Amino acid sequence: LSRLLCTKSKHSAAVAVVVDMASDPQTVPLDNAFLETVMYQGREYQRYAVDNGAYFAPIDEDEVERLQIMHAVLSIVFENQLLFPPITRPRRILECGFGAGDWAIEVAQQHPSCEVVAIDICPHIWPDESLTPTNLNLQVDDLNGRFTFPSNHFDLVHSQMMAGGIHSNRWRDYIRDTFRVLRPGGWCQMVEIYFNAQSDNGTLTQNHALRRWSRRYLDSMQPYKDPRAPLQMQSWMQSAGFDSVETQMIPLPTCGWSSGEEPIGRCAGHRSSFGDVDPRQHQIGVANRENVRRMLSSLAMYPMTEFRGMTSQEFQVLVAQARSEADNPAFRRTRRCADMTDTKANVAELTQAYFPMTETSSVRHVGAPHG
């Protein structure tokens, strides 16, 4: 996981909704191109998204559930912290790619005096209107187009899991757009997963299904997307003019471990127990297990079968094997002990296969404090 700190309708959606990204947007009829769907191997997709290479994940109820699970996982990872920068009274927040709307809803609820604008390409998986706070404005648009918001407008721009939606040749301009619409001293925070399954001790090899899934997924997304964008966002943000870019790489475990399992061996000079292992990692893994199982299929089925010629049977076999490995205790290992006196030193840790996640945040540029 990579963390960088720096009016609605559903399905049929025949009513008018906001579709243009302006500071004082008008409500106009939603373009029918955004409403059309297509079935592909039993899953429902947005026709506009797949035809324009914008997004290759399904938009059905199963995917909505997965997105909600993913939000719950990230809530644990970030300890229910929605805003990473020190912003206490934001006036305007922009979310790019709101998905099922969980983050946008919670931010709007926590900051009722803040105008929250959330953009997504798909109107089919919007949250129920009864759950949408009055200060939350959901809009439909393709973020591969240039932002039309005025400059110096938002206190914070939040971008999460957009590597599957932003064109590979759009990323630099996308980040420049976020810079332009932020007020002086405003913040941008980005969260992305780098879908390269890893195991620190080398137990997970290139021949394992999880690694084969990763290679094929990364390959199948090109040239439409840049699945390695999470590794480059820090330099892109610096090039765009952001100050104080902070990046944190976070291992996102694919599962937990059973309560009856022997947690860890002894390390010289240190007591070993379940508590030493960091139960939060276990909690994250348990919460993330179902997300991973669904994600291995939903994110990869269209690009792997449509762009790289895998048959449906070949794909299902690979997914089944990858799911099995994601749950396999054989990939768990103990880190070597660190000869450190710090009681908080990570002297021994139980892990398993994981996806790296990056978190990056950055202030736009130094200005008068606000909020």
| Helix vs. strand class | alpha/beta
How many distinct folded domains? 1
Computed over alpha carbons, the radius of gyration is 21 Å
Q: Write down how many β-strands occur, each being a DSSP E stretch of 2 or more residues.
A: 14
State the major sheet.
Answer: 8 strands, mixed
Distance between the termini: 28 Å
Helices and strands, in order, run as EEEHEEHHEHEEEHEHHEHHHEEE
Kindly report the average pLDDT value.
80
Beta-strand share of residues: 15-25%
Oligomer: single chain
Q: What would the CATH topology be? A: Rossmann fold
Low confidence ranges: 7-28, 258-276, 333-352, 366-371
Judging by the overall fold, what is the CATH architecture? 3-Layer(aba) Sandwich
Instruction: State the share of residues found in helices, binned by percent.
Output: 25-40%
Provide a count of the helices. 10
CATH class: Alpha Beta
- Under CATH, the homologous superfamily reads Vaccinia Virus protein VP39
Structure summarized in a few sentences:
The protein has about 375 residues and is of the alpha/beta class.
Features:
alpha/beta; 21% strand; 10 helices; disordered C terminus; 371 residues; Rossmann fold
